[in-house]
Each structure stands twice: as C-alpha cells, then as structure tokens.
Amino acid sequence: MVRSVENGGGAVEILPDHFDPTAVVPEPLPKVVESDAELVNGKSNGDREIVLGRNVHTTCLEVTEPDADDDFTGDKDAFMASVLARYRKSLLERTKHHLGYPYNLDFDYGALAQLQHFSINNLGDPFIESNYGVHSRQFEVGVLDWFARLWEIEKDEYWGYITNCGTEGNLHGILVGREVFPDGILYASRETHYSVFKAARMYRMECVKVDTLVSGEIDCADFKVKLLAHKDKPAIINVNIGTTVKGAVDDLDLVIQTLEESGFTHDRFYIHCDGALFGLMMPFVKRAPKVSFKKPIGSVSVSGHKFVGCPMPCGVQITRLEHINALSRDVEYLASRDATIMGSRNGHAPIFLWYTLNRKGYKGFQKEVQKCLRNAHYLKDRLLDAGISAMLNELSSTVVFERPWDEEFVRRWQLACQGNIAHVVVMPNVTIDKLDDFLNELVEKRSTWYQDGKVKPPCIATEVGSENCLCTLHK
Amino acid sequence: MVRSVENGGGAVEILPDHFDPTAVVPEPLPKVVESDAELVNGKSNGDREIVLGRNVHTTCLEVTEPDADDDFTGDKDAFMASVLARYRKSLLERTKHHLGYPYNLDFDYGALAQLQHFSINNLGDPFIESNYGVHSRQFEVGVLDWFARLWEIEKDEYWGYITNCGTEGNLHGILVGREVFPDGILYASRETHYSVFKAARMYRMECVKVDTLVSGEIDCADFKVKLLAHKDKPAIINVNIGTTVKGAVDDLDLVIQTLEESGFTHDRFYIHCDGALFGLMMPFVKRAPKVSFKKPIGSVSVSGHKFVGCPMPCGVQITRLEHINALSRDVEYLASRDATIMGSRNGHAPIFLWYTLNRKGYKGFQKEVQKCLRNAHYLKDRLLDAGISAMLNELSSTVVFERPWDEEFVRRWQLACQGNIAHVVVMPNVTIDKLDDFLNELVEKRSTWYQDGKVKPPCIATEVGSENCLCTLHK
C-alpha cells in the first residue's frame, strides 16, 4: 500500500482527502527587482568610496533560475563549473600575494574532504550531547583539553567551546565578566580589537579606554589613574595577547599588580585575555609573560584560523567552570543549557583543529613560531636597511612600517593599514622568498613614488617611536 | 645573499645580531593535567545527568603529541586515518536515522571540494571589500540579492549578510531594533526560539512574553492586552515564521493590525521575522501570510543549513539599509564599518548557498516544499491511524506527537522533545521509506511499552488540543 511519492503513479492514494496539492503556489517566481543603474554601475574598483550596501553589487555573481532543459543540456553545470574554476584561480593568486592578515594559509585538509557530505552541528553545549547525532563533540572536547593543558587549568575546572571566530570569544568572555559583575566597568586599551568595544555597546556596559605605550601595550600608569577614579565598581579588563595592529602583548602580570595596588581584591575583578593570534604563539616564546589560569584570570580566547590555519574562521574559548555554572542557572529556564553565544555551531571546525594539533603537536608549533620570529626579524631589518621606517615588537611577528603611498600596492599585497602605518604579519606560510618578492617590489615602487621629491614618505614617529622612524626629520 | 632559513646552512647571516633564536622555549610541553578519575569515568551514555563540563570527556578523542619518528613510520597517519574512517561510518549511520531536527541532510557539494584549500573569510561588511583578498563577497551578495527578491525589497534599499546560524540572525535583528528604539520593549511569544530571550538578556532589554494558541501561534488578544499596558514605550516584536517545536507560523498581518489597533503608529514599532526553517518554505505555500518588506517589517532572518542544506550552520539576514546607516554612524569610530555581529565570517557558506540556489532555483524549492508537505501529512495520518496522538499545523511540515516512552528510541531517531511531546521535521531528505521504517518501529515498540497496561501513553491535549489527542481520556 505504501508507495513513494517520488516514484510517480499511485501516489495519490497515500495523501489525505483534505490535503490539496495545489495549495502550493503554482507561480512563486518573484518579479525581477529593477535596480537603479546609477547605483549599481559606475563604481570602479579603484574608487573606494564607502557607501553601505552598494559597492559589491557591481561584481556580484547573480543567482539565475535554471532552464527547464538544463538537466538535459548540461548548460547550467557547465556554467557553474566555469565560474568555480575562475574563482579558484583568483583565490590562488590572492592567496599568493597575501601578507597583511594573521592567517596561516598553509594547510592541507585533503584527508577531511570525506566529511564535507555531512551536516555536522555541535548545537548547544560541547559537554552535553544533544539529541542531534551528527556532531563532532568528541573532537571538540579533545581540542579544548589540549588548550586547557596549554593554559594550565584542570579538566574538571574549565568550560569552553569552539567558536566561530575571535570576535565570538571576546563577546563570550566579556559577557561572562558582566554576568559575574553586573555593575562592572569594562577597561580596555585604545589599541584593543574593535569587537571588545562592540561588546560594551551591545551589552550596555560602561567602558573606559586606557592609553597605550608606543609599543601598543596598555599603559599601566594610566590604567591605575582610571581604576582609582572608579574604585566603587568592580573591574572587567580585556588584556591583549597581541594587539591587532602592532602585535603588542599587554603585560598580564603588571595588569594584575596594578589592580592589586589600586585596592582591587581578586573577588572584585575579572580578566579576559584576547589571544587572537598570539595566544597560540606566546607559550613557545621565552620571556613572554605566561597566560595561565594559575593567575587570577577569568577567560582566554584564541583564533583557530590564524596560527593553526583553517578554511573558515573559528576560535577557542576557555573559561572557569564556576562562572558558567553561575551563568547557566539563569539560562536554564530559557532553554536546555545554552551557555554559548551561538546556538548551532560548525562541527567541521573542531575536526580541522584536532587534525592539525595532532599532526603538529607542541613541538611542531614551536618550530613554526621560531621560523615566524626569524622571518619577521629578517623583514624588519631589510626594511630599515632600505631606509623604510619599521618596528617589530620583541614578542611579535607583526612588522609595522610606513604605509605605502599607492593604494593599488596595498591592495595587491593585502596589507592592513591604519593611518600612516601598514603591517605584515609573518605567518608560517610566509617564506623568505615571498618576503623578498615583496621587499623588492616595494623598494622599486618607492623609487618611483618619491623620485621627484614632491611626495615624501610619511613620518610615523608617533606610531612607532622616533627611533624607528626614518623620515626626513628623524633619520 | 638572501637564503631561506628552511634550507638549512648559511641562514645565520640573515638573522640580526640581537636576535636570539634560543629565545624560543626549548621545552614547551606542558605537564599532563591529572584528571579526576571519578569525574571522567563512570558515566554511561544512557545516564543523561546533565553536569556542565563533564559528560563528553568520557568519549572524547584526545590530541596526542607526535612521536619523533612518525614521519618515518607513518604510525600517526595510520592512526588518524582509522579514527576518521570510524567517525565517517558513525556519521553515515547517524545521518540515516535522523528525523528530529530541521536540517536537510541531502546535498552534494563535491564540486566545491576544490575550495577547501583556501582560507575564505568575508571579514567585515559584505558590500565593502576589505583588503583581505581571499573572500567570496561576489557569491554572498548574489545570494543576498536572491533573498531580497524573495522578500520584496529593492537592491539599493536593503542591507544583509550571511550569518553563522539562525541565532546570529536573531541577535542581529533584535540589536538593530534596539538601536532604532533604545527604550523599546521586546515582545515575543512563549514558543519563540530561546535565542530571542537570550538576546534580551544580553542586550539588557525589557522583555514581555506573550501567550500562544494551542497551534503555537502568538495569541494576538493577549498581545493587545500587553501592548496597551506599555503604550508609553516603542515595541520591538519577534514574529515566528515557524516555531521551533510546533512549526507554527505567527500571523504577521494580524500582528501588524493589533499594533495599529493599539495605537502604535509605524514609527513606533520594529518587527523582526525569525524565519529559521520555514522562512524559505512559506513563500511557496498558498494561503501563507506573506513575509514582505512591502509591509512595515524591519528584518528577516532564515537559516541556510535547514531547508537548503549545508555542511555547517549558516543563515541569511536581511534588513533595511536605512537602519544600518543609522547603526553604522555610531559604529564607525570603533572600526572600519562593522555592522555584523561577528567580524570574521565563513566565506565558504555563501558559496554553498549560491551553488544550491543556482541548481534548484525557485521552481526546485517549490517542488521540494510540496514533497515535504505531502510526506508530513502522510506521517501525521499514519500516526493517527495507529492510535498515536499527533498534530500538524496547516502550513508546516513539523509533525508533533506523543513523546515515545523509551529514551533510547528517542535518541536512535534523534527526535526533539519538550515535555510530553516529540516532533519529526519532514525535510527534503526524509522519504516515505524512511518514515515507514520509523512508523513500523514505533508501532512495534509501543506494543511492548504499553502491553501490560501499567504504563499508559501520555495525554497531550494541552499541547496539541483535545481533538488531536488519542489518550485513554480523549479518544
């Protein structure tokens, strides 16, 4: 009696009398929305006017309705294959010329391609299986345990999860801080990642910006002044383990000492460490102030797509279980244990991380960190040798230098810029050969930009200190 | 003179004098953290005690340090290949027996495997290219345009982005609502997804819960009472286009009418439509109240991994450009245009969506919606025929029925449960054959659970209405 409706014929008998198949709209195709030609066209790539909701419309790949005979002709398949082949080629070129963002583009996850056919979702808590069986919690918790060990917290004392990116880690860490201290004030240095200020705004928290040193580190003298001005309220502090622009590492020990000296006992502050890129490099660098839960910190986050390398953004968030237990009591009535920011979570990301951690291990990361630091020093020295202002923080692989005059050059090498400075983040995939290509091109271009003396290289003494500035005034 | 450090020998000359390569910690391997055996062991899978931060530790896949000779012996590769092969097999089995979550598990993205080697990140705004070149904005905007057309808003009047999941869409929509009306009160029905209440908590918004009808729809009589009690403040309303448990569709037109009747002019309310699953099915169902930006709504979100199907969670968020322009003015000083919740964004998700939309088109989705509705009716009728209480909302493919007595059965079929009810969401990959397997197993199991009359099937009249309840009292 039971027949599949797909097999055609005889299927009608299994449908209920009151079900009307014509209840499905026969012609659902919406009308084509007329686009305003003036807005969509006439914007060249060089024209970088920022108008929300417009620019990319000029180059976007429209979704088109398949023709009725596409299955027969194969035209659609051929079209899509050609789009993808062209796109792949552009990705190869763009990947080759990338220097500005802290992403390790050197990975091979071919062994995991077999898993792309599954809809893997770690919805909910990593430590509590939901009824959805297609998950990867066993990999996720394995990865979390590895990081818990790195940051020195016992398995039964931490809670954490694999996030969608560094921003989610910061959003989570600061939310936990706010739930621990509902009237706490958020302190973050000026050179902190924008996601931390976004969190303050989203969560309606009072936020105090702290000055920075030339290196980009938090200025603990200014921090103390600001703490003393707000002694009545608990402190929630974002500590940067590598700032976005200069790769500066805040001195965690000095931050804690400043808190203590200002009269904040350990039950009156919460520290979130934003480890974005460098949280995973620093454990392998001697003299670096150690990030450890043996110190009075509340949470640490790090990105997974940065030093480890991953096809899509992801991150790791670790906090103390006691904080989450306090949080989850309140969350419980809302839903079945929801202590993450996102409900559904990408189950592939933990497998990528698990795979790389297993293959490289602590020793492999150590080697790569060593290589990155060597190459970063090489780049900085060659820049200075060529008369180009440059700075490299001692514990960092982020080389800061004068912003190239030509935006086309900036875009070609995908440099991240702020004001008069640009940076290159030396990641494991950045070889000496690549740096040489970049340096040679920069030196050559500079000789044309500045040849007639009308335009001069910018002074970046305020950004990097006069000792690192080679402008006409300082050299 | 320039030599790669990787090539060994002669590399020292390129290093600066002051750089000390031994600055890298020689023995970074942290000590193994001792785990408390009592906590880690002794929890069987059947024991579902929920203790945060513990259960999955029993089954997790530890990350181990590679041996020095792994490259030579291949032992590590062999071990990892065997773990992945076993995992793949379990995913096949779990995918086969999945019925409870609204995920379309039927997809083939083999053509996109070539892109897994790239770190694709659409960081920042979809419409403004960042300097990071390895992105997929051209696909993202193509997908957004398709949805803008579906929900009837002009290209130059919308803003949107591909999110990490339905929760991110809700978090964004409600944040935009709060920025438009900083003192607005959030209204949401009791059967609303928990992420909406999470948003209220995160954003420190006043939140009013509205009653629901038996169907799961918002009760507009109660909504009116609550609106009239808070006439002094603007209203931010979450409208469910398919609730999580019962698949109930709130009547958008009635919600708007209720607002108007209660004295709320269009400049005093903001409506966010949570389209999670059904936002993409309903446009193809006749008689369904249409979601359209021609009506006074502020934003719509829908999940990408649900009806479309995708290896990882993702979603689409569309709002009015005017709201984002207002929002971004404030955000601008924080950073270079940051109007999303997450900063870094998965660049693969838009390509998956683009690929499926192109292949299936509006007509393809129409066919699949028709199939799902037919199969859902089939399931509901066969449940009722077998004497099992069941309900199916007219515009839905979510079949609600009595919760199976045995938790093992619930886990095997990955049913989502709440109190005395369970549900099956009939997605495109759920065939009549699969439903028959499920039905036959359920009927057989029930005859053993309830054979001696000591245990009786639960009454679910309050959840689904007495007319759909077949318990001993109501049948």
UniProtKB/TrEMBL annotation, chains A, B:
<dbReference type="InterPro" id="IPR021115">
    <property type="entry name" value="Pyridoxal-P_BS"/>
</dbReference>
<dbReference type="InterPro" id="IPR051151">
    <property type="entry name" value="Group_II_Decarboxylase"/>
</dbReference>
<comment type="similarity">
    <text>Belongs to the group II decarboxylase family.</text>
</comment>
<dbReference type="InterPro" id="IPR002129">
    <property type="entry name" value="PyrdxlP-dep_de-COase"/>
</dbReference>
<dbReference type="InterPro" id="IPR015424">
    <property type="entry name" value="PyrdxlP-dep_Trfase"/>
</dbReference>
<keyword id="KW-0663">Pyridoxal phosphate</keyword>
<dbReference type="GO" id="GO:0030170">
    <property type="term" value="F:pyridoxal phosphate binding"/>
</dbReference>
<dbReference type="InterPro" id="IPR015421">
    <property type="entry name" value="PyrdxlP-dep_Trfase_major"/>
</dbReference>
<keyword id="KW-0210">Decarboxylase</keyword>
<feature type="modified residue" description="N6-(pyridoxal phosphate)lysine">
    <location>
        <position position="306"/>
    </location>
</feature>
<dbReference type="GO" id="GO:0019752">
    <property type="term" value="P:carboxylic acid metabolic process"/>
</dbReference>
<protein>
    <recommendedName>
        <fullName>Serine decarboxylase</fullName>
    </recommendedName>
</protein>
<dbReference type="InterPro" id="IPR015422">
    <property type="entry name" value="PyrdxlP-dep_Trfase_small"/>
</dbReference>
<dbReference type="GO" id="GO:0016831">
    <property type="term" value="F:carboxy-lyase activity"/>
</dbReference>
<keyword id="KW-0456">Lyase</keyword>
<dbReference type="Pfam" id="PF00282">
    <property type="entry name" value="Pyridoxal_deC"/>
</dbReference>
